[in-house]
Design goal:
five-stranded antiparallel beta sheet, globular, 8 strands, about 280 residues, 11 helices, three-stranded antiparallel beta sheet
């Protein structure tokens, strides 16, 4: 296991910090993220499900799962959001893969914890930031202990085997390279070297979503970066990413992120020079 990043955000309600942590995004192969909320008003969007934020709620997102934090515009100033976020990776073959995969396959987010876990997350945060390699290792062991304690009860219901996962990974790369193209499931499957039906089964097995839906989420993820990172009109962005029209784009955008493009821009607007360069040219 490796802890890639861990942050503690205290009582955020707007601005660049909220924009960064609230962006609509997914992580890569082998990457998992925990969000442990202490307070706040809003929702946590995980793939196609939307959950209210409440104190001591723990959310787990797996590889390639799109997620974001949506503040409640009516209450976020009175109830700003505080939470810990831990991004970590697992080695191939590590026992936690099936354990966490089982939980995600059952769509059992969130888990309700208690206030004692606040101190566990704070310990992981402090140890992981220490210059001491021993304390950094202690942070990893603390996180491992947390994961086994919280998700260990799911051990008996294992997820499907990893057979065919490399086809899914290859298909995702094909989709990422063709964000501005009108890709079909047939063309992606042909590039990967399997049948359309087999590709659909593999996506449902490993990601619980169809290839077409996943490709749509990728396009919205990339488009959301332009919504908050450029001054292009919503219509221009819709056209750049191959949507039929602005209305169609806005409808799909809201379905994926929980917000319309205009509202998303209003909440998460940032200066262009504060953002990493967009991969879409």
């Amino acid at each position: 296991m490796e802890i890639r990043d861990i942050v503690y955000e205290y009582r955020i309600s707007s601005g660049e910090r909220m924009a960064w942590h609230s962006r609509y995004h997914a992580h890569g192969e082998g990457e998992y993220e925990l969000h442990y909320f202490l307070e706040g008003a809003g929702s946590f969007l995980n793939h196609r499900a939307r959950y209210p934020i409440h104190p001591e709620a723990l959310f787990l997102t797996g590889p390639h799962e799109f997620h974001s934090i949506i503040p409640d515009p009516q209450n976020v100033q009175k109830k700003p959001i505080s939470y810990y976020a831990v991004l970590f990776t697992l080695d191939t073959g590590e026992e936690l893969h099936p354990l966490l995969g089982s939980f995600l396959a059952g769509s059992r987010n969130p888990i309700q914890l208690n206030s004692t876990y606040h101190f566990i997350f704070e310990t992981i945060l402090q140890f992981s930031r220490s210059p001491s390699m021993h304390q950094k290792k202690a942070a990893v062991h603390q996180l491992l202990s947390l994961l086994y304690a919280v998700y260990g009860k799911e051990r008996d219901s294992l997820p499907p085997s990893g057979v065919g996962l490399h086809h899914v990974q290859k298909a995702i790369e094909v989709m990422k390279r063709g964000l501005k193209k009108k890709l079909t499931v047939e063309s992606v499957a042909q590039t990967v070297g399997i049948s359309k039906e087999h590709l659909i089964r593999l996506f449902q097995r490993h990601l619980h979503i169809s290839p077409l839906q996943y490709a749509l989420h990728l396009r919205i993820e990339a488009a959301s970066g332009e919504v908050i990172g450029t001054e292009r009109s919503i219509g221009e962005i819709a056209e750049r990413f191959g949507f039929e029209n602005q209305f169609h784009f806005s409808r799909v955008f809201k379905k994926c992120t929980g917000l319309s493009p205009t509202t998303y821009r209003k909440y998460y607007v940032q200066y262009v020079d504060l953002l990493p360069p967009s991969p879409i040219q």
